Each structure stands twice: as C-alpha cells, then as structure tokens.
Amino acid sequence: MATHDPSKAAAAELDTLTKAFRKAEEKQEQAREAVHDAIVKHLRARNAPPGKIAEHTPYDRVHVGRIAKGAGIPPLRGPNAAPAPVYDDATVDAALRELDRLTATFKKAEAKVEEARKPLQEAIVRHYSARTLGPGEIAEHSPYDRNHVGRIVKAAGAPPLRG
To answer: pLDDT value at position 74?
Structure first.
C-alpha cells in the first residue's frame, strides 16, 4: 500500500504553479517584443513623433529612444540627425491605435504574470513554514534560487527553519 508523501505532493504543486508562472512570463515576453517591434517599425517609417509613441506605450521617451538607438534608427536631433519628417494625421492615428492595442495586450500579460506569481509565492511560504520542503528543494521546483526563496519567506514573515 502506497503512503502519502507530503514532500512529493508539495513538489508537484510547486511544479504545476511554476509551469503556469513560466507560461505567463513567456506570454508577457512575446507581448513586450510585439510592442518593441511596433515602436521600431513606426520610428523607422517616421509614422509618429517619438514623444507621441512614448505616450501610447508603457515606456517613457528616454526608453523609446534607447529602443530606437538599439535598432539603428537615427535621432531627430543632434549631429547624426535624420531629415525632419512631416507627419500625416491619419498615419499617426493608425500607428498610435496599433501601439495602444499592443500596449493593452502587454499590460494584460503583465497582470497575468502577477496573478501567477501570487499563488506560487504563497505555496512557497506555506511549504517552507510547514517544513515540508527546505529552501534548496523549493528552489529546485520553482523559478527562484534558494536565496530568493529566503527573501520571499522572510518578506511573508514566516519563521526561520533554524533559530
């Protein structure tokens, strides 16, 4: 007759929660890449001014500038400036609508990561506090290293294993 092993059940629970968390992180990364690709596309085509693009993305002007520089897009000002573009209102509106849509998708994916993080961290604290699993075992079945597991547990106010 098989006996119930709490450590195996705890590890299985952490594996399931970790899988959901990593899936949410992957979707967030895909959404982030889509936003970055659209920023580069619209800056390269000069469809909208960088300031307007920043207003319709989760980033400030400086970060939009870093994305543009990383993609090799010449700045609008300075010694290496490109010729000043003339913006068409319809094109600007279409570009900003696309950025708004992609930003909404990114923010939803970001919220899903936080939704997946909460039960994972609660399970970590629960299994640590119940002494079902130690920090090293938790780290093997979660996306965190043992030091981060310790920070999560300490932040939750769980008593230390030694003491």
So the answer is: 82
| Distance, CA of 45 to CA of 85 (rounded, Å) | 10
Distance of CA 69 to the CA centre of its chain: 22
pLDDT at residue 82 tops 70: no
Supply the pTM of this predicted model. Answer: 0.85
Number of H helices, E strands in the chain: 6, 0
Those residues whose C-beta lies under 8 Å from the C-beta of residue 130, and which sit 6 or more positions away, are 6
Quote the tokens at residue 98: 């696309």
Q: What is the mean pLDDT of residues 3-29?
A: 93
Which are the contacts of 40, defined by CB distance < 8 A and separation ≥ 6?
67, 68, 71, 73
Two tokens at 14?
A: 């952490």
Q: In the prediction, which pLDDT does 147 show?
A: 94
Helix or strand (DSSP H, E) at 103: helix 89-129
Q: Of all helices (H) and strands (E), which one includes residue 44? A: helix 6-44
Structure tokens at 58: 């989760």
